[in-house]
Amino acid sequence: MPLLENEAHLSGSRWRTTPPGYVLRPAGKRRPVFEESPVKIPISGTLDLHTFRPEDVKDVVADYIAECRKHGILQVRIIHGKGIGTLRETVHALLARLPEVSSFRLADEQAGGWGATIVRLKPI
Fold first, then answer.
1. Three-state secondary structure readout of 58-88
2. pLDDT tens digits for 45-71?
3. Cα(101)–Cα(122) distance, rounded to whole angstroms?
4. pLDDT of 25
5. Which residue ranges of the chain lie beneath pLDDT 50?
6. Domains of the chain from N-terminus onward
7. Where does residue 72 fall: left (phi above 0), alpha (psi -120 to 50 degrees), or beta otherwise?
8. Which residues sit opposite 29 in a β-bridge?
C-alpha cells in the first residue's frame, strides 16, 4: 500500500488496533484468533488513542512521536480522553521518560482540555 509523504505504517508485534485493523479467521472450536494487519496512520501531529488497546498505548505513542520528529513535526497533540485519568497518567508517565520530549502539558479547552496532552519535541 503506497504511502503519502505525511503517512507511516506503524505495525509489528508490539501493538495493534481494534477492528477494523484485525482480520478474523476461524480457529476450529477454540476462540477466534486475530491476525494483525498494518495500520496506515497519517502523521499530522494529532494522535487519537481511542482506537488502540490500552496495552499497546506505550508503543504506539513512542512510535508516533518518533515518526513526527522524522517528518519535522515538533508539537504533537495526544488525545487520551477524559475518563477517570488512567490513560492520561500512562501517557504522561511515558512522556516523562522519553528523551525526545522537551515538555508536555494538558491542552487548552479548544484543543481538548484535560482529555488531550500537548507535547513539544526536541528537533532531530
1. HHHHHHHHHHHHHCCCCEEEEECCCCCCHHH
2. 999 999 888 888 999 999 999 999 999
3. 6
4. 47
5. 1, 11-27
6. 7-121 (3.30.1370.110)
7. left
8. 27
